[in-house]
Amino acid sequence: MPRSFLVKTHSSHRIPNYGQLETQRETISVSPMINSLRPRPLLPQESLHTSKGHSALTVCTDPLPCSSECPLNLLLLSDYPHVLGAVTILIWIHMECSGPQIPNSSEESQVQEQASLSYPHKAKLQVGCFECLDCHRPYHTVAGLARHRQLHCDLQPRRCFSCKHCDKEYASLGALKMHLRTHTLPCVCVLCGKAFSRPWLLQGHIRTHTGEKPYTCSHCSRAFADRSNLRAHLQTHSDVKRYQCKGCAKTFSRMSLLARHEESGCCPGP
DNA sequence: CTGGGGAGGGGGCCC
DNA sequence: CGGGCCCCCTCCCCA
Hints:
Strand order of the largest sheet: 1-3-2
Mean pLDDT: 54
């Protein structure tokens, strides 16, 4: 499939309950090994209060329990797209205790480093603090930062232009209009009636009728109607082709030839 | 099976 | 914003 740089990837847009954690105080630590965790649903708001009667909770990305009586509940931070964009972060909430040990200063800097690697664009995580990277306002809670970003920094959410003929989405109207031409095919060949999305595609097609071949190989003087085909042909004159097999180091002039070579099982992987 | 030509499609860039 | 062009790519077919 051709690369589609403008096609947006789908992401979750479930509406979070921003008030759910608003009244809670949070501390946070970060562990990089969070992708293999099995999600559990977050309990209702009333269950977020600890059995000891105070509202302090510890929010942690480390799933390790702290005591046998302390249940862990999972919050999917991807439910907060205004905080972290499309990044999926798992936050474990310690329901009954103060959570794992608060990092010392050296561990804290490590936490900061991991956090900046995990979500570089939207939110900066600190121990006990969420900061908006756009206006640098500090927030004690995820929900607070989320609400701030929704009301102030993300007033104009990213627009999304969807094609009515297929499921593709584009970040700009121009990109969508260009894509729509692949459905409407406005460029029609007067000689055979074949339709194309772009004028230059039609131009290249008309060459198949006229036999015009304006692109000439400097090595063998062979002529081509299409510049891309000349480029592919030039590879045949090269000793070292562009696409190399990782198994046997054999090179090929085209990616399709390399793919066919690898699929043939010539060089089975380890 | 492999190499290569022909035809066509997609997004990006520039004017 | 639209057109033209570029680059990269795929698919089909044939020798």
